[in-house]
Amino acid sequence: MTARLSLTSVAKDAKTCQRCPLYRFATQTVFGEGPAHAPVMMVGEVPGDQEDLQGRPFVGPAGRILDRALADAGVKRDRVYVTNAVKHFKFEPRGKRRLHKKPNAGEIEACKWWLNLELDIIKPALAVALGATAARALAGRTIPIGTSRGHLIQFQNGLPGLVTIHPSFLLRMPDPEIKAQEYSRFVEDLRLIAQHVPAAKRAA
Ligand code: URA
Question: Which of 22, 31, 46 to mutate to test ligand 1, by most ligand atoms within 8 A of the CB atom?
Fold first, then answer.
């Protein structure tokens, strides 16, 4: 990939992306956000309702959990570039609401064009997959979250990586006790970021 590509120019090109049909229904492309040379890149699944309207990743309820968990894990938020495997909101209209839908393999594959450009420009020391869709996009194959979380793995092209749950998973948990336990596990997973990338660690 050429060195003259910048995040700004790639984000501008992504605004008119028609690589898959999702652009027809979404408000806008939600490109990644964060420092161009962030040591850590976090990848979510697909923008949600709020993200689609605001044009920024992880600004809705899942983003608020992620921000809290990163702070609890001692990770500096401004050392992390945040993006999604798929950059247009996928939803099903239900009355006045738009219900999130999981992207399919073709949509993930089509959007890898943008994810690969982000990886190429940022060259993170560590990539973190939030959930199975992101893990699939980064690894190029299905990765079971349950057995792969908690230790360093390798994504495509030898990129060091971690996998953990998607924060939306916590939003859907009805039992407060189990939810608190799962939140703690999520924070434990995120602690590994600062362990492997000291530059991402917050001062105590
Ligand atoms: N869920 C995601 O995967 N990404 C977002 O940006 C918001 C919610």
Answer: 46
User: In terms of C-beta density within 10 A (0-12 exposed, 13-18 middle, 19 or more buried), how is residue 94 classed?
Assistant: exposed
Which residue's CA is the closest to the ligand 1 atom numbered 4? 47
Q: What is the domain extent for residue 87? A: 3-197
Task: Assess if residue 114 is contained within a domain.
Answer: yes
Quote the number of domains for the chain. 1
pLDDT digits (tens, 9 = 90+) for 47-86: 999 999 999 999 999 999 999 999 999 999 999 999 999 9
Domain assignment present for 145: yes
**pTM metric for this prediction:** 0.96
Q: Is 204 domain-assigned?
A: no
**Domain at 171, CATH number:** 3.40.470.10
Sequence-distant (6+) residues with CB within 8 A of 200 are 39, 40, 75, 76, 79, 80, 126, 193, 194
Predicted confidence at residue 2, as pLDDT, reads 46
- Asked if residue 186 belongs to a domain, the reply is yes
Centre of ligand 1 to C-alpha 132, Å, is 13
Q: Measured in angstroms, how far is the CA atom of residue 51 from the centroid of ligand 1?
A: 7
Quick one: pLDDT at residue 203? 82
